[in-house]
Amino acid sequence: MALIPAPIISTSMDEIRPILRSKVFWVFLCALSAVLALAGPFGTAASLSIPLRLIYWPLIVVTTGTVGFVVGFVGCDVIHAYGVPKWLASLFSGVVCGLPVAAIVFTVNAVFLSPGDLSIEDGPLALSILAISTVISFATYLGFFADRPTGPVLPPYTGRPRLLDRLPEDQRGPLISLEATDHYTRVTTDQGSAMILLRFSDAIAEAAPTPGLRLHRSHWVAIDRIAATQRDGPRAVVTTTDGREIPVSRANVPALEEAGLLPPR
Predict the structure, then answer these.
(1) What are phi and psi of 191, to 5 degrees?
(2) pLDDT at residue 2, rounded to an integer
């Protein structure tokens, strides 16, 4: 068993890329940087001029905000993959992501400030960063995962995918594919398809023990339901047993080759 489940990391990164590309995310960080630069909290108003604060605070906010969000989100999914409840995983990931955030803060402080310039000592500052990081990580859990009607808590794996228990009884059958649509996942079996309110990464996890491949950021297909494959330039196209064509991203073509479903170049 791998120490870190690479598919979980890949899935988590696919989910947060739209957020990292969002203008709202960056506008928020820039606006917060400007407010802190003008206010000059923690003694920076006395220690740094406004031009320096307009460099110092964006460095702090943008770097720690981005690193903290990515490490916290991915870390939560990785820890959860080992069976830790999601809410508890968010707390652990908050502590973990607090470490690189603290390292960034102390590095920037060493460049811009002299000892004693801040109104808070290094020890309390480090503890404050860890505490804030943990609170933000838990708040992210509440915002993204808590209190959503994603279906009942299901029992451990038996002999079939847990995902089938979320479908209407007349649509439960061997899995063919999964498709992500916002917070929903379309589950297709040989008995039909249904939309369920469930994160794509969680749907893939609950598809076990059905062998499958991630073909695209929003597509997963059961291996035994792949009828044909063909190359499309650097990418590929998979045809399922029910006749649908599903695109394969460039990054996922090697997985098809390794599975013996597509001849290597």
Answers:
(1) -110, 0
(2) 41
DSSP string, 123-163: HHHHHHHHHHHHHHHHHHHHHHTTT----PPPPSP-SS-GG
List the 235-240 sheet strands across, edge first.
226-232, 235-240, 245-248
Residue 70 neighbours by CB under 8 Å, 6+ apart: 13, 16, 20
Q: For 213-255, how does the pLDDT look when each residue is reduced to its tens digit (9 = 90+)?
A: 999 888 999 998 998 898 877 788 899 998 999 888 888 888 8
Local structure of 22: helix, strand or coil: coil
User: With left for phi above 0 and alpha for psi between -120 and 50, is residue 131 left, alpha or beta?
Assistant: alpha
Report d(CA 73, CA 94) in Å as an integer.
9
Indicate if the pLDDT at residue 101 is higher than 90: yes
pLDDT digits (tens, 9 = 90+) for 138-159: 887 776 555 444 444 444 444 6
Q: How many angstroms from the chain centroid is the CA of residue 244?
A: 28
DSSP string, 75-113: HHHHHHHTT--HHHHHHHHHHHHHHHHHHHHHHHHHHH-
Tokens standing for 211?
A: 């062998």
Q: Is the backbone peptide bond immediately before 247 cis, with ω within 30 degrees of 0?
A: no
Domain locations along the chain: 6-144, 162-258
Domain 162-258 has CATH 2.40.50.1020: yes
Asked whether the predicted pLDDT for residue 108 surpasses 60, the reply is yes
pLDDT at residue 60, rounded to an integer: 95
- Report pTM: 0.55
DSSP class of residue 3?
A: S
Dist. CA 46–CA 80, nearest whole Å: 44
